[in-house]
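Why does residue order matter? Because the sequence determines the fold. Keep that principle in mind as you read this record.
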Amino acid sequence: MRLISETRGADDARNLVEYCNFSKGTCWSDLRRKHGFKEPHDIKVWCLGNEIDGPWQICSKTADEYGRLAYETAKVMKWVDPTIELVACGSSGRNMPTFPAWEETVLDHAYEHVDYISLHTYYGNRNNDTQNFLAKSLDMDNFIKTVISVCDRVKVKKQSKKTLNLSFDEWNVWYIRRRVSKKLSHGLLLRR
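Structure:
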């Protein structure tokens, strides 16, 4: 579940975890029960926003602003349910001018309170160049290695025993060219 987003914060996040995961006897868990859900939803993995460094986002943030918010939000969410896992936003993509400094700054703030950092990438084959398209796997491999290196650097800086995980939570490949309409073997018609 994506949280924080561009306009929400720590208090809304805490309330939502209580609503979804707390059994009963609190304001938000009792509201869930009133809404017809007696048992908790028991959501275990939460994303602390999505592509917060993107200039297309309303209220986008700097890495310092987001890192501090992610840190405070993670603390209160885990106070409500210490069993949840949290995903901090990585840069919106490796071609962003913020990459990879964004990841390092965010993790400088939130490393000990989050469990994952997100990676996003999309690959296409607009020129119908199969060799180039298949070679994109090397780019993805380098992307992953770079983020792992940043995580390891922060781990050493913080002298942490914790190893951060990666969440490749937004990725895709598009094999079909967008330029030309093409009838596929299963009968769908794609238009650009």
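Strands lie at 45-47, 85-88, 116-124, 165-174, 182-183, 189-190.
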